[in-house]
Amino acid sequence: MTPAAVLAGRPAAAKGSHWAQRSACHTTNADDFFEPGPAAQARAREICLTCPVRVACLTDRAAGGIAETEGMVGGLDQAQRRVLKVAELIGERPDLERAEQLLSPSWRYRLHKLRNGGHAPRRMAEILTGEGLTVDAITVRVALWWVGGSGKALARRASRDRRPLWQRLRDDHADEILRLRGSGARHIDVAEYLGVHVGTSTRAVQSLEVAA
Fold first, then answer.
1. Is the pLDDT of residue 13 over 80?
2. 48, 51, 71, 57: which is closest to 19 by C-alpha?
3. Which residues form the 4Fe-4S Wbl-type domain (predicted)?
4. Secondary structure of residue 75 in the 3-state scheme
5. Fewest Cβ atoms closer than 10 Å to its Cβ: which of 73, 114, 143, 183?
């Protein structure tokens, strides 16, 4: 059975599953596609990157427990889909069409240049919007995930920045952290959203909540 058939056969995707017939994974063995491990994920992601119905696949699964589905779905692995689920708590939903546009020839080089510059997705979104492509941070993160980037919320540490990671989170991501906590996010949810260890994010959360 192929990955497309596996997904299309699930209740959440049964309605309007015609996209599966046009998917790049239509002739791929599901055992290979849903196999755990970095190497298998990289192979599956390469298939998703060429898929003409990647957005439809991801959208079709969004309402049916997509975060809990194993394997690669719509070019995102399980951990990345959990980030999207947490992001919804604070009203962040990616514009998948814009994320695809970021991978077009006219924008992909710019995306890679910003990524290599170490910018946080939030700052990348500000720059791209200023240059004519209106996107938000969560949309940028999806585009980065699609091309194999980490897509973490944090910027790369500057060489002269001696702050410990928890302090960087507290100083640079206070708004997101407090909004998440105010929306009922658990410590593990905050950690997944930011892309850090739960102990590190918890220390930042506690520092912010004490100060508040």
1. no
2. 57
3. 24-83
4. coil
5. 183
Closest CA to 136 of 169, 182, 90: 90
d(CA 125, CA 127): 5
174 vs 184: CA distance, rounded Å? 16
- d(CA 102, CA 139) in angstroms, rounded, equals 9
d(CA 77, CA 146): 10
- Note the pTM of the prediction, 2 decimals: 0.86
Distances (CA, A) of 197 to 32, 46, 152, 158: 29, 27, 12, 20
Least confident range from 65-69, 77-81, 87-91: namely 65-69
Measured CA to CA in angstroms, residue 111 lies from 55, 75, 89, 108, 137 at distances of: 19, 17, 26, 5, 12
Structure tokens at 58: 């991801």
